[in-house]
Amino acid sequence: xxxxKGGDIFDKVLExxxxxxxxxxxxxxxxxxxxxxxxxLNIVHRDLKPENFLFQKNNDLDSLYIIDFGLARLFQxxxxxxxxxxxxxxxxxxxxLQGIYDNRCDIWSIGVILxxxxxxxxxxxxxxxxxxxxxxxxxxxxxDGPEWKNVSKMVKQLICHILxxxxxxxDLKTILIHxxxxxxxxxxxxxxxxxxxxxxxxxxxxxQIGLLYLATQLDQSEILQIKNGxxxxxxxxxxxxxxxxxxxxxxxxxxxxxxxxxxxxxxPAIYKCEKYQKLMFLYLSIDxxxxxxSLRSIQIYFECDLDYQQFVSLF
Length: 315
Prior knowledge:
- This is Protein kinase domain-containing protein.
- Keywords: ATP-binding, Kinase, Nucleotide-binding, Serine/threonine-protein kinase, Transferase.
- It holds the Pfam family Pkinase.
- One of its GO terms (molecular function) is protein serine/threonine kinase activity.
- The protein is mainly α.
- The protein folds into two domains: 174 residues, Transferase(Phosphotransferase) domain 1 (Transferase(Phosphotransferase), domain 1, Orthogonal Bundle); 120 residues, Orthogonal Bundle (Recoverin, domain 1), CATH 1.10.238.
- It has 15 helices and ten strands.
- It has a two-stranded antiparallel sheet.
- Strand 2 and strand 3 form a beta hairpin.
């Protein structure tokens, strides 16, 4: 589990007032990727707001994590659900107030967040919660404040496309190919090769599990090049690489999730480091040994009995 010491988006808005387009886009693209990923699993968050996005580092906008799935629900694509009202007043979609809605409510919320990033205040407001919700239902907002003077028509257009009634609201795929969002897409170096995949197949299962865990624990600065390669290859920003995106995947790898990709690309210079080997061993072991019982505690069912030195020898 990552430690996030950089505060949340709301903290940054209070600190800076508002972001320029470059900063807002850096944050927004990460929000989009998060939403695309969890909605691909048929999950709707229902409480997206600046306070639910944390920065891992204080001075790094490109280190955002989404939190708080306490109001999340599973949804069926194309089905309108009769759910209770949920969310935070400023960011809640108008259809949520009617009690019948679907995953598109999250798209509305990210549109409100984008608006806030660029000007520092919400598009819908009032003296109290009732007035705020009335404003949301009317759906009228503007770009009249001085903060909008130097904001491009392109991003204003995107906001208008998102803050629409449910049936007219742009979907995530359309948002991802919007010209303003596409400005962020940069060419990355593709590090994964067929040799990496073949090498992985030769690894002991315990080594594979250890590397998968290590991939989740490494600082972003240590895997930045690998991460950029993944993002460049993942054209639909789903967080999962398909066979269409990696043509040398075989039946063993029908697809690759983000941390799987990271673990496959890790080089010995990283995972042979003593502190990381101890970190992996600590995760896999109980009382100084990796055993069948210790693996079961992390839901791995495999007969095993290794001490630390035997574990290190696998690498």
